[in-house]
Amino acid sequence: MTINQQATVMLSSFLRSQIKPLSVCLILSLSLAACGKQEPAANGMAMPAMPVGVITLQATNVPIAAETVAQTEGAKEVEIRPRVGGIVLKKLFEEGAPIKQGQALFLIDPVPFQIALSNAKAQLAQQQAKVEQTEREALRLKNLLATESVSQREADNAWSDNSMAKAALAQYQANLREAQLNLSYTTVTSPLAGMAGRFELSEGALVNANTSLLTRVYQINPIWVRFSLSDSELALLGGYLSPARVKQLHLILANGQDYPQTGRLNFAASSIDPQLGTQQLRASFANADKALLPGQFVRVRVTTGSRKGVFLLPQTAVLTGDQGKFVFVAEKNAQGKVMANVRPVVEGGWQGQSWVILSGLKAGEQVIADNLIKMRPGAEVLPHPYQEATPPPAKAK
Questions:
Q1: Which of 40, 229, 307, 384 is most buried, by CB atoms within 10 Å?
Q2: Is the C-alpha dihedral spanning 241, 244, 246, 249 positive or negative?
């Protein structure tokens, strides 16, 4: 190897031994430079206080109430059936119209019953004549018995014949009364005042006594409302209901309006339905203007008293977690910053569109009611009075 070749090899070996330390130094220098540049950036990313709307709590009183779906029914619902069979000659009412008590509804062919009545009258007259005949015969034999012209047996038989004739007379009188009733039953009347249903058959139809359904009559003033409450709803109201425990009953119609008349509970089951787990209830409401009809679905609000010292919060302020309901409360920490803290609460159902909070909060505390999607426990907040959003005005068509 020449001198030039040896020098080249030595230079290459020296350079290889120096590259690694130089690389490490370069990397460390770049890292330190980067750290020095990132520290101000991190300080610049500190989150500002989040503006939130808060509600300052004030204790209030709310009614102890529960709402549930209910259905109306007539206070009395009578099926009109004929007491005698025959051909329906005429319908005497307007379907769906108001009906008075005792009003004639149908006429059944009366001719067969008129004939039966005439026959009963004739049989009665015939029997009356027989009674008079046997009575005269018994008196005649009584006089002859005094002169011993007839035997005692003949006189006794005469009086027995008279007694049997009188008994038969009573039977014919009953037959006459039955014939008169059957004839009167050919005019079918309503046993109560109410609203008439539709005619189930048609004129000319053959109906059977006590079985064929002609129509129905519904008494709708007052009208009844039937509903039921579950165990949880009953617990919210303070236990199983009775007419004495219910303070107020209100109806909410299908359009969301309140029915102007209040009701009263007229039936409360003394046991819980084992299949549904509910207590069956029924209320009565005045319905003079016939605003309610049987079969309507409504909502009934039952009030049993009032709760004192509770808080009302809008729906957006109350959240649900694994442990139940909770809210965010704006509170100052030791450094004087306002922070968002989680507070578990116990709710007591709804009052209108607001949650009723029974416990977990104190009067004067500030509950955060908006920006809750971005909220995190311990986040700094900038509170301002909460204003509920109002829906935009409807566009003119």
A1: 229
A2: positive
